[in-house]
Amino acid sequence: MKHYSLHGIYSGYQELIVEMKSNITLIGMPGAGKSTVGIILAKYLSFGFLDTDILIQMSRQKSLQQIISESDHLNLRKIEEEEILKVDVASHVIATGGSAVYSNPAMLHLQGISQVVFLNVSFENIKKRIHDFDTRGIAKADTQTFEDLFHERQALYREYADVTVDCNELNQEEVARRITSKVGI
């Protein structure tokens, strides 16, 4: 009769969880630097890089703004959820669209395969970075201001994040280094 120690079983389980969460997912507002930091981070870690906004554009053969203009922001969020639920990768940095956090199924999927990192940037800094607010393909209601959207999303980003990085005083390289020190991959 073979005996298994609890420690051995637990250790194997921990290794499985780490293997399952070999990705890093970046969440945050448009303009927070998810795509740029994601590419830098992928280089640091020798990971692949995946941008869910690009996945949407490739699968639909349209820009995010075209999708919104032809239907509405809720349709873009639905499409975003569909594309995120298809993501099945390991050892990748995943940059999400700013509205990914509106989909609980999508975020639970990402939490299951990755460590989720919120790139926290102040509203003032986001305003300085975004100059194409009306044409960028941001999933928001027509009557909603960018500031309203910012405040609405902050609680969602914090809810789903495993790690939060304050990016206000850091350049993109520093943000990537801060993430590597916090996630332990």
Q: Per CATH, which architecture?
A: 3-Layer(aba) Sandwich
Q: Tell me the Rg in angstroms.
A: 18 Å
Give the helices and strands as they follow along the chain: HEHEHHHEHEHHEH
Structural class: alpha/beta
Estimated share of beta-strand residues: 5-15%
Concise synopsis of the structure shown:
This protein has 9 helices and 5 strands, in the order H-E-H-E-H-H-H-E-H-E-H-H-E-H. It has 185 residues and is of the alpha/beta class.
Would you mind describing this structure in some detail?
The protein is of the alpha/beta class and 185 residues long. The chain has a single domain (21-183), classed as 3-Layer(aba) Sandwich (Rossmann fold), CATH 3.40.50. It has helices at 6-20, 34-45, 52-60, 64-70, 73-86, 104-113, 123-129, 146-160, 172-183, and strands at 23-27, 48-51, 92-95, 114-120, 163-166. It has a five-stranded parallel β-sheet with strand order 2-3-1-4-5, with helices on both faces. Helix 4 (64-70) crosses helix 5 and helix 5 runs parallel beside helix 6. Residues 1-19 have low confidence and may be disordered.
